[in-house]
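As a next step, we paired sequence with structure tokens, yielding the entry below.
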Amino acid sequence: MKRVFVLCFILSGLLSIKSWGQSRSVLKGAVYDGKTQEPVAEANIVVVGTSLGDVSNFNGQFFIKGVPPGKQRVRVSLLGYKTKELVLEFQRSSVVEVRVELDEDIAVRFGEIVISANRMSTYPQIRISHDEISNTRVKDVGEFIRTIPGGSAIRKGGIALDPVLHGFRQDQLNVMVDGGMHVWGACPNRMDPPTAHIQAEDLEKVEILGGPFSVRFGPTLGGIINLVMDRSERFAKFGLNAVANAGYESNWNGRRGRLSVSSGTRLADIYISGGLKDYGSYKAGDGSTINGGFDVKDYSLKLGLNPGEDSRIQATNRASFMRDVYYPALPMDAYVDDTHMYGLDVASNLHFLTVTQVSAKIYGSFVHHIMGNQWKPTFSIQHAITDVKSNTYGARIELSSKLSSRSTVYVGMDGYENYKSGDRRRNMVSGPLAGKSFVDTVWQDAHLKDIGVFAEAHAAVSPVVTALLGVRLDAVSSSVDRPVSLFNTSFAQSLRGSELNPSGTAGFMWSLSDKCLIQAALGLGSRTADISERYINLLPVGRDNYDYLGSPSLKPEQNLQLELSTDLQSEFAELSASAFASIVSNYISAKLITTIKPVTPGVYGVKQFYNVSNAHIAGAGFSATFPLNRPLQVSVKGFYTYGQNMDLHEPLPEIPPLEGDVNLFYRMKDIESWIMLGSRFVAPQNRISTSFQEARTPGFAVFSVEAGKKVIRYFTLSFRVTNIFNKAYYEHLNRINKLTGSPILEPGRSVDVNVSINY
């Protein structure tokens, strides 16, 4: 499989070695704030309809080579400013120089988007746009994380895949909504990870920051995933926009629909969105049926007020309702999963000393989850139902201070409280215990609180070097209101805990030239043990077949991570590469204990969470894009992750193998039609954790095709065929099917058709 990666890379390189001609031109210039006339850094400049582009430096300057002759549309955009388009005329072998002035967009500047995510940002980041998400037609956010370099996800059913990034998983990742809102699921088996409460179709973009390289957005161990919800556009006068989508996916007999409407004036605006999905079981490549059906309905509402030129108030309400969600890898299926999220954002520009902006957020998220075993074989032995809740309250405030045109300092504080409650009820219907009933306390009414303060500075230390420095301190406390007798007896002295967790980061970005960038970052991130790891009460929540027991006295994990990355651009290719190495102390794992008997029928015993003194995680990846000619380009990506438990001298569990993809993209001349041929290659995974009952997994290759066309002005038709050759395969992170004893197979060939109306 490794030879396939090398062959694909060489082939793409050979295809790209062709004459670009001597008739292409150069575009150079600078971007300025239209009000202050100061240079604007990190603005995105693209030649529309081509792969050509650049990002402005701290002097606002940009430089683009290889522009074709004739009239070209040039788009300049940056968060917080209105996008500007220019129509420029290029003669053969000419140099065109422009000055671009951007106007502030208050509605965007004071929205929840808080992570700048373009290629030249100080942190190493990935940004996924709404168009990319829409074209992929994923069923949930976790499924989309699989498509990015270093991203993967744990499949337990047809939906709600649990993201993994660079080998970090679950609460090792800081998943947030709109730059600071948190929602934690109620299910102890993570049927509802944070990403499951947001529908991919309702996202404006996804911003991903691997590693503990920012301190502004809460405690972070392995990375940040920021889910930015769609919002109303800015209206200078009364306006109305509407987008409707409808689609069908053949393999699942899956139907979906969505309608979004935004309207407003200069003073106020509103955004309303709602959708539904109804999917059944799917067939794998070998013809077997995987019971992964689900039914989801959701809505979003955002109300915005602009009381002044420099201020904005925004209220958000979001809800999702999941019904009859099947999980073949878990002992139960979900009957109900209801989520309600409320948020209020206030922001204003200031002119007090050096303080330029203040923003504040308060929010609450509420999850109610009911699951049972009615559709499982164990229903003939016992009738079990679990009814649990997870409520989260939080707030955030931040001040930004612009010390100069090339340096900004952010200071602030944030905090949250997560409260989980609920019980499992079991009625025995056969066997020696027939007729008896049991009530198992799941969460013991547990509380986890975190209050943090932070300061982070971004500054240009020279014309070509930008530096970042950040520090953070979190005060964490935990407790239970309704401890069970086992915890009262075994952990009476540690049921209440408190800790102080430091974090810090330092990094720099070095522009060797207009087309060569080097980044380096060093971060120390801390993560407190979550409620499940502290207080779970004998439930089979792991990948192996054991009841798990919490440990209230767990130490916080700490990740010391170094990452290096580089970006190169030329007329013939865009290349990027990165590598990281982490030392994770007090890594939280689980070990077998024999002093306590399990309570779940059929499990092998009991495991308890504990701290591994030392674990190592490292990885490296690359991506390359070759524009073969103006409408055609080839892209190649690959990533490898390594994880090792240094105490047990064995690999860490749930580490994905070497993987990559090769895509060929063609956009028609009218730029309203496109087609992409995709391929994904995954190597075998032979590095497995025997203590977690992992098995070796074979490699595979799958192929897809997708295309779309704007038929008329407002009407777009697209289709996608996945797993073209109907391959029977599974990912290394797929959990074991409880019925077959084998990993859950991925869907076989499927045809997806989508219709979109954008008015």
Summary: The domain at 125-758 is CATH 2.40.170.20 (Maltoporin; Chain A).
